[in-house]
Design a protein that fits this description.
Elements: H1 3-15, H2 17-27, H3 29-52, H4 56-84, H5 86-105, H6 110-138, H7 144-148, H8 150-172, E1 180-181, E2 184-185, H9 186-192, H10 195-205, H11 212-217, H12 221-232, H13 237-248, H14 268-282, H15 287-290, H16 292-298, H17 303-327, H18 333-355, H19 366-384, H20 387-397, H21 404-432, H22 434-455
Antiparallel strand pairs: 1-2
Length: about 475
């Protein structure tokens, strides 16, 4: 695509930008649900521990089990989406979210709660795949990076909103997470409130169009032209459809078998996608959202302040995400990732240093405590303005058309498994040695730098049909 053509495409797409933003925001609601679920279980954890008389290790599994479901949902979503369409997958995910929220709120035993959280996890995994894929396929190339960033923006907003809702419910229950409201305990209300965004996600899915690429693959050319005109404006529709058809002509429905080949059984591009997904999680970002209150209390900060610091972290997360949305299409995906990796490495190193002053005690000295708090916020900022957004954007862009759906499913499944590993092991690792735990996360942040430099290619401004 020439610079003149790209400029004209950007101009005509801009005329329809409001409509495109609505479509993107609706698709990104799956990310909001993931963020909400991630944070709401943090608020309910203490009550679950008390009600069901379980230890820290068992509670970690209750928290982490949704991630196993997410890996399953992510692995299945690509193939299902190629068969029945992107919108239908969103609707299935919305139903799973809704059922999970109701079941979790009314759970009567640990195994029952685990079942419903696993079911909700499957919905999260499906939404995590279909959101970036759909946005990448619908968004005009000139705006695709910023629009794809909506997925991560929705996640961080979901985290913040969840914390505010939890706080409101606790206030209504006089600060008792097992206090009774509406005939249920407060923690049950926390989990049940997720019905509201789940239903909204389902309703919005009926208000947005199917992906033009799926419509063309299904032979619905006229409808595909309508959708392209709605999102890309006054362009040559016949030429645009011809471009997509040309790219799809030799394609077939992608399966895991299509990903095989090359070193260690998979194509190189698949391993790069898996690497991006795994590095994103192994820096320990979700510790900041699943266990932040527990972590700060364990080093001597009172419960009220720990809630405040958890909330300020979520605000920093939002600010960093906004920075990424502004920069991702200006300076590119790769430079952002490198900047973030450097910032995370330094801030995680400072956290590890501060925690080394615990010396078997349960309270940090004031100076080291301030360093730990500031470094934690800096870490979240650098993650949010880089890897938090860049990975979702690149996973929607980097794979060739003929394997995109299946490849994205595998990469996202790897991300959920890495997320589960960090979530399930943190309580035990932190009890063993908090400094060593953060050095472990720092090591992966440092290793991500040569990984990006050597293996990751820039996708800024490229059409999906040009990926190969």
């Amino acid at each position: 695509m020439t610079s003149t053509t790209l400029s004209r495409t950007a101009r005509t797409a801009g005329d329809n930008l409001g409509h495109v933003i609505f479509i993107t925001a609706a698709a990104a609601m799956g990310g909001f649900l993931f963020g909400y679920d991630s944070s709401v279980i943090n608020g309910a954890g203490g009550a679950i521990h008390s009600k069901y008389h379980i230890g820290s290790a068992e509670l970690a599994q209750v928290v982490a089990v949704a991630l196993i479901g997410s890996a399953i949902g992510a692995a299945l979503a690509g193939r299902i989406a190629d068969r029945i369409g992107r919108i239908r997958v969103m609707q299935i995910a919305a139903v799973l979210f809704t059922v999970s929220a109701v079941g979790s709120a009314l759970s009567f035993a640990v195994w029952d709660l685990v079942l419903w959280r696993t079911l909700g996890g499957i919905g999260i995994g499906m939404a995590s795949v279909i959101g970036p894929a759909y946005i990448a396929e619908v968004a005009p190339p000139a705006y695709r990076g910023r629009l794809a960033s909506f997925q991560q923006a929705a996640i961080v907003i979901g985290i913040a909103i969840s914390q505010l809702v939890n706080w409101g419910i606790l206030e209504a229950a006089n600060g008792n997470d097992r206090g009774h409201l509406l005939g249920l305990e407060a923690w049950q209300i926390m989990l049940g409130v997720m019905v509201v965004p789940a239903v909204l996600y389902g309703l919005l899915s009926f208000a947005i169009p199917e992906s033009p690429r799926f419509l063309i693959s299904a032979g619905r050319i006229d409808r595909a032209k309508q959708v392209i005109a709605e999102v890309e404006g006054d362009i040559d529709l016949r030429a645009r459809v011809a471009d997509i058809e040309s790219a799809m002509r030799s394609e077939h429905k992608s399966t895991f078998k299509d990903l095989l080949g090359g070193a260690f059984g998979l194509q190189k591009i698949i391993w790069i996608g898996i690497g991006l997904s795994v590095f994103q999680q192994l820096v320990g970002i979700n510790v900041a959202f699943y266990y932040s209150s527990t972590l700060w209390q364990s080093v001597g900060i009172d419960p009220a302040s720990s809630f405040f610091y958890s909330f300020t972290t979520s605000i920093v997360n939002i600010v960093g995400t906004v920075v990424a949305i502004v920069l991702v299409d200006r300076i590119g995906r790769k430079p952002l990732a490198l900047i973030g990796s450097i910032g995370m490495t330094v801030s995680l190193g400072l956290e590890a240093w501060a925690f080394s002053y615990l010396n078997g005690g349960s309270t940090l000295p004031h100076g080291q405590g301030m360093v730990a708090l500031i470094a934690a916020h800096v870490f979240v900022f650098f993650f949010a303005m880089s890897w938090g957004v860049v990975v979702w954007v690149m996973l929607g862009e980097m794979f060739p058309n003929k394997i995109r759906a299946a490849a994205l499913g595998v990469a996202a499944a790897a991300q959920w498994m890495a997320n589960w590993l960090i979530t399930a092991t943190f309580p035990s690792l932190s009890d063993w040695n908090l400094t060593a735990t953060y050095l472990f996360y720092m090591a992966f942040a440092a290793l991500s730098i040569p990984f990006v430099l050597k293996f990751v290619k820039e996708t800024k401004g490229k059409r999906l049909e040009d990926m190969g």
